[in-house]
Amino acid sequence: MKIKWKLLWAIFVTFFKIGPVTFGGGYAMIPLIEREVVTKRNWIKAEDVADVFAVAESVPGAIAINSATFIGYRIAGPLGAIVAMFGILTPTFFIIIALSISYLYFSDNPKMIAAFEGIRPAIVALISFAAYKIGQMAITDKTTLVTAFITVVLLLTLPIHPAVIILCGALAGILLVLTKKKLGHEVHLGE
User: Fold this and answer.
1) Dihedral through CA 172, CA 174, CA 176, CA 178, nearest 10?
2) Does residue 62 come out as left (phi exceeding 0), alpha (psi in the -120 to 50 range) or beta?
3) Which residues contact 162 (CB under 8 A, 6 or more apart)?
4) pLDDT tens for residues 91-129?
5) Residues 22, 36: contact at Cβ < 8 Å?
6) What is the phi/psi pair of residue 169, to 5°?
């Protein structure tokens, strides 16, 4: 097996650039990942991004690291997964260390408090934009729209663990596809 060092370096650099701007968790980085790996580098298709994030959220671990690992794997196999993971982890690790030290010394500083007052709504906007982008890819017809709506209602009204919601979503998807096929409707599955 010939190792493609240029590609591995490009994967590392791409995720190294994304890592520092993942304030608010992995959801905030979805638009950045899409821009870098779909639009700019053309490594994966736009419709595959929704699948990657669905899988990344359904397994244990941080969504940012899981997503980078899955995308790296799709691009360059196991080495790509490792390189992408270290790319996204490295800057975040050093930023957290620096912020932890700074916070110990400056937590009562009015400028630090003001900065966090501005960061919080910006993170909400990034996460909302990410939800919108994934929604565009995931909600493809009336049944997926209804499924998404029911899921939101369940999450807002009942204390259900997200893992149960994911499993129920998978089951609902299987049942919906089988029902559509039995009714004679055409079903397109990621084609």
Assistant:
1) -150
2) beta
3) 57, 155
4) 888 888 987 888 788 778 888 788 888 888 887 887 788
5) no
6) -65, -40
List CB contacts of 145: < 8 A, sequence separation 6 or more: 139
Q: Which amino acid is at 166?
A: I
Distance linking the first and last C-alpha atoms of the chain: 30
| Cβ atoms of residues 26 and 56 within 8 Å | yes
**Structure token digits, residue 13:** 């650099």
Q: Which two tokens stand for residue 92?
A: 């975040």
pLDDT tens for residues 19-68? 877 665 666 677 788 888 888 888 888 778 777 777 777 777 777 888 88
Q: What is the DSSP secondary-structure string of the chain?
A: ----HHHHHHHHHHHHHHGGG-TTSGGGGHHHHIIIIIIIS--S-HHHHHHHHHHHHHSSS-HHHHHHHHHHHHHHHHHHHHHHHHHHHHHHHHHHHHHHHHHHHHTT-HHHHHHHHHHHHHHHHHHHHHHHHHHHHH--SHHHHHHHHHHHHHHHHS---HHHHHHHHHHHHHHHHHHHHHTT-------
pTM of the model: 0.59
* pLDDT tens sequence across 130-177: 788 778 777 877 888 888 888 889 888 989 887 888 888 888 888 888
CA distance 37 to 15: 9
